[in-house]
Design brief:
globular, Alpha-Beta Plaits, alpha+beta, 4-stranded antiparallel beta sheet
Length: 83
C-alpha cells in the first residue's frame, strides 16, 4: 500500500507557517527548528513543502526563526494564520 502524506493536526491556540524549500534543505531546517526547545513542530507535506506549527504565545519567535531560515536557504514563507 502506498504511503500518502496527511495534513498535520494542529489544534486551537496554534499558529502555522508554510515553508517551501529545496528537498535537500529539509533536514537542516528541521534540525534548527527542533533545536529551539519546544518552539515548534515541523511537518513535511511532500518534498520541501513544510508546515511549521507553534503555540500562539510564541508566534513572534516562530516568525523570526522561519523568516531567517527561509531567507538563508532561498525558500518561500507563507503565513497560514492561527488554527
Amino acid at each position: 500500500m502506498a504511503r500518502r502524506p496527511v495534513p498535520p493536526l494542529v489544534g486551537e491556540g496554534m499558529v502555522t507557517r508554510r515553508v517551501i524549500l529545496r528537498a535537500k534543505d529539509v533536514a537542516f531546517f528541521k534540525g534548527v527548528v527542533e533545536a529551539h526547545d519546544g518552539l515548534a513542530a515541523v511537518f513535511a507535506e511532500h518534498g520541501g513543502d513544510l508546515v511549521v506549527a507553534a503555540p500562539a504565545s510564541r508566534e513572534a519567535e516562530l516568525d523570526e526563526l522561519v523568516t531567517d531560515l527561509a531567507g538563508e536557504l532561498g525558500g518561500v514563507l507563507q503565513k497560514d494564520g492561527a488554527a
